Input
Amino acid sequence: MSADPLDEAVGELEHPLEYKDFRLLLIGRLLFTIATQIQGLAVGWQIYELTKSPLMLGFIGLAEALPNISMALFAGHVADRHQRKEVAAKSILSMLILTIVLALVSFVKPHGLTYFIFVVIAITGAARSFYAPSCFGMVADILPRKLYAKAGALNSATWMGSAIAGPLLGGALYLAGKATLTYFISAGFLFISLLCFIRLTNKHTIAPSDQGVVESIKDGLKFVFSNQIILGAMALDLFAVLFGGAVAMLPVFADKIFNMGPMALGMLRGAPPVGAVLILIFLSRYPIKHNAGKILLGCVAGFGLCMIGFGLSTNYFLSLFLLAVSGAVDGVSVYLRSTIFQLVTPAEKRGRVAAVNSIFIGSSNEIGEFESGVTARLMGLIPSVIFGGCMTLVVVLLTTIKAPQLRKLNIEELQKQQM
Output
């Protein structure tokens, strides 16, 4: 294993924000997430207005997840074989165009509007599959290894901060101008995000390889499934999000349980990131070094307990608090996973590992929304949320037993290793 060249070349810089490209990347990701959060809220509320069906809310997630999953492995290969900033920029440009299409059809309101929205969301899922693998690798291209943990906290805090602003802004925009205005504003954020990625100057060294697409994908999958730490962390989050998320049902909670509108929905969707940002600001100054595996497992268990409490609550402010706590513990687990993946994954495989991660984790959000819609239809709204929280606790128990290397993980030891 050789030393990280960035450590040798720019070792005098002690904070990620001292790097111009990292600042551009951070701003670009912030605006991208705000845009997608605004769009997600608008799509959810628009579909609910058109159908009044919790099951249809679940189908939104499925419509985006299936194309995302089908393209993810190829996207990871592309991210490892091409300049990542260019791959990310093309993904954002595609989503910008599709968001403008959503705005236009929402204004025209053609016959079959609901089904047209689902088609656009499906295409968006395919375009978005290239974004995560390219962004994941860029952090390591820009920063030396010793700054990965601080960068992970900043990245996670930025994502969570945008996840606060996005739903709140989306709720206010939808209240003011319905779907058309909301989609146009979302497109504006995507455009500025695109400019940030275009301005990136960093280029990563593309490792020479004779592997074809299929062999490259197989190589990435082999690495993930042979590494207990990476596989355990991915599986833990996959099933926790699959069973434990209640985000897809928040429009129903806002309407039926709390008798409120889109602004209340924005507050509910924004509560988890509030909790996450607070804890991640702390972690950016005081990163976790010891007992990372145990802390990760404990946080996912805490997330499941919060979901159970949220399902049982009929008080709007108590529900906001529980969602905020769920965001705090989830923020810690996101931070830990991000740091672990950067430290454990070789540079030439980061795109493919991120692609598998997007299947396990990114798409688990959308499939979890579908699962929430189905279980709400079969069990009822409240029992479905409680069931999901209980299943999350079961997943934590099984992971604790089956992945001892993850349970014993120490980040400080990983940082001393050179990939």
In short: The two ends are 5 Å apart (CA to CA). DSSP finds 17 helices and no strands in the chain.
